[in-house]
Design brief:
Elements: E1 5-9, H1 17-30, E2 33-40, H2 52-81, E3 88-94, H3 97-104, E4 110-113, H4 129-136, E5 140-142, E6 154-158, H5 163-171, H6 173-178, E7 181-188, H7 193-208, E8 214-220, H8 226-237, E9 241-245, H9 251-257, H10 260-267, E10 272-275
Parallel strand pairs: 1-2, 1-4, 2-3, 4-5, 6-7, 6-9, 7-8, 9-10
Antiparallel strand pairs: 5-10
Length: 276
């Protein structure tokens, strides 16, 4: 079992280099086809004063900028994949990135994503990993802008007994099967510790049936400390990849009460595989 097709948004700017390098490395590792997508949209004009000619000029100028950015991204993709030993496919278009990539992901098993420079999340240029996880129905690997190449030797599976976590475990199976060690971690309330221990032990047994070497750990903390505890355990375990279900609560619930998904997405310094 592996990923047969990997998709990545390509941009001609330094922060996107790590994203493309990661996608290309994974394509080599899994013997996968790599789909590069160049996509941007024009920011709408916010005034309407009857100056139709001027508005048309602005639109044309913005379209030219987007098209030039896409052309530069295509050149970057061609240069990166030339002689790389993988099948490479290019797609492009003038469209909103999240929606365009979600549609294109019908041909992909894994989507590699990241943020723009200075943590930019411009919806007309960038496809945020968490937005892609929600829109695409595909596992989305969030790539930090500065990090060592992903080896996924030690993987932490952040467990919560939800549909999203079960989906994440299944989606991450190619990584889990290649890993040297996997930690299944559930962090919750003290009153549920015994049940949590039973749950993570059951997950480990399921992984072992797939020849995945895994261990289980359940621990307690206050709800608002969950994300920080997961990070602490990941560092102690030496994890170079975190796997988590995205938005087990509603997005509004995560925004109001805080949540693991948004906290991990805001870190921007570790590899995280999200599934929803």
């Amino acid at each position: 079992m592996g990923y047969a097709t990997i998709m990545v948004q390509v941009q001609n700017e330094p922060p996107a280099e790590a994203r493309l390098e990661c996608a290309l490395g994974l394509a080599r590792s899994f013997g996968a086809t790599l789909i590069g997508v160049g996509v941007e949209s024009m920011r709408p004009l916010i005034f309407d004063n009857g100056m139709v000619a001027m508005e048309a000029e602005w639109f044309n100028a913005l379209r030219d900028i987007a098209q030039n950015n896409i052309k530069a991204a295509k050149d970057t993709f061609a240069k990166a994949t030339a002689g790389a030993g993988v099948e490479a496919i290019w797609e492009e278009g003038l469209d909103m990135p999240v929606q365009a990539l979600a549609r294109a992901s019908r041909a992909a098993d894994l989507v590699v994503a990241g943020y723009g420079p200075d943590n930019r999340n411009d919806p007309y240029r960038d496809a945020a990993p968490t937005d892609l996880a929600l829109a695409s129905g595909r596992p989305v690997l969030m790539v930090p802008q500065v990090a060592a190449p992903l080896e996924a030797r030690r993987v932490l599976l952040a467990w919560k007994d939800t549909r999203e976590a079960r989906r994440a475990m299944s989606d991450a199976m190619p990584f889990l099967k290649k890993a040297e060690d996997v930690l299944v971690l559930e962090v919750g309330g003290r009153e549920d510790l015994a049940n949590a221990e039973t749950r993570v032990a059951s997950v480990v047994q399921a992984l072992e049936r797939h020849a995945v070497k895994a261990r289980a750990k359940a621990m307690t903390c206050h709800e608002h400390e969950t994300s920080g505890q997961i990070e602490k355990e990941a560092r102690a375990f030496g994890a170079d990849l975190l796997v988590a279900g995205a938005y087990g609560h509603s997005r509004l619930g995560e925004w109001v009460f805080g949540g693991v998904t948004q906290h991990l997405a805001d870190r921007r310094d570790c590899y995280v595989l999200f599934s929803h």
